[in-house]
Specification:
Layout: E1 7-10, E2 17-20, H1 30-42, E3 45-48, H2 55-62, E4 67-69, E5 85-88, E6 120-127, E7 135-139, H3 140-146, H4 149-155, E8 159-162, H5 179-183, E9 188-191, E10 193-195, E11 202-204, E12 211-214, H6 219-233, E13 239-242, E14 249-253, E15 257-261, E16 272-279
Parallel strand pairs: 2-3
Antiparallel strand pairs: 1-2, 3-14, 4-16, 5-16, 6-14, 6-16, 7-13, 7-15, 8-9, 8-12, 10-11
Length: 281
């Protein structure tokens, strides 16, 4: 740890913190891991620049934080490491798929349709477009703290309902699914306000790509409230646009943030990334 001497540098006013002086391709010892954990509790979007990781390297690093999970859609999984998936607009034949820029461009947190919520996710840039093509993050802790008192009282004690690709963002259309296919998945329930297990901070826990409403509330009114709260949470004052560089590895807190692809890359340029989602052990 003394040789690494890592430092933090803010990248955005709301979120985004760069970690300086750490090479993730080499084994991380207990001291360095503890340093990352401490930084991550306060800064829920960490950026490690100039990394060169294969799928095995990324998986080894991710396993130090919990249990990486295979992607729900098998076609995106890495052929040798199922817990690592591709985020890419390049097809198996090497051709550019223009629709690849549109996927995951709705605001969401990953896998809230599961009974057990994920802890964090990692995305590692292998190839990036020449301009734009960013990912945007929203701080759901800050959004909760800034809610008007009437809104906070309204959601206190509410339980949200979640399904895969079901909610006001209509995200199923980006995956060529129908609403019926999306709603065929089981409903899961999570509090509308979560307490972060490490920091103890309250979090506005809504997700327009997977939240369908709230227990005991009329479905239309519940979905409208999800949309209202989500729109509040993604104001510029709560967000950070990450401009990718090849070699970037981003690590973000799946409870404390939402994110989306900006969908603004030149449509005929390659974008290849590796991703893993990590659940608590």
């Amino acid at each position: 740890m003394s040789q690494l001497r890592p430092q933090l540098r803010p990248l955005g006013a709301a979120l985004g913190t760069e970690v300086l002086g750490m090479d993730l391709a080499t084994p991380i010892d207990a001291a360095a891991l503890g340093w990352i954990e401490t930084a991550f509790a306060e800064h829920p979007v960490l950026v490690f620049r100039d990394q060169r990781l294969g799928a095995a390297d990324m998986l080894r690093f991710a396993r130090q934080f919990g249990a990486p999970q295979p992607h729900i859609l098998e076609r995106y999984r890495h052929p040798d490491f199922a817990e690592v998936s591709y985020i890419s607009n390049v097809g198996a034949d090497g051709r550019i798929d223009p629709a690849g820029n549109d996927r995951a461009t709705s605001w969401h947190a990953d896998e809230t349709y599961n009974e057990t919520l994920p802890r964090l996710a990692m995305l590692h840039a292998i190839e990036v477009p020449s301009a734009r093509g960013g990912t945007i993050f929203a701080d759901m802790r800050a959004a909760h703290d800034a809610l008007p008192e009437a809104s906070r009282q309204r959601i206190a004690g509410l339980t949200g309902t979640h399904r895969w690709l079901a909610g006001p963002a209509r995200a199923w259309t980006l995956y060529r699914k129908t609403e019926a296919e999306a709603k065929a998945h089981p409903e899961r329930r999570h509090p509308a306000v979560l307490t972060h297990p490490v920091s103890g901070r309250p979090i506005l826990f809504v997700n327009p790509s997977h939240s369908t409403g709230f227990v005991g509330m009329d479905p239309e009114a519940g979905e409208a409230l999800v949309a209202e709260l989500s729109d509040f949470a993604v104001q510029d004052r709560f967000t950070y646009y990450h401009q990718w560089r090849a070699g970037d590895l981003l690590m973000w807190d799946e409870l404390a943030t939402m994110h989306r692809g900006a969908g603004d890359a030149p449509p005929q340029e390659r974008r290849v990334m590796l991703r893993t989602i990590v659940h608590p052990n």
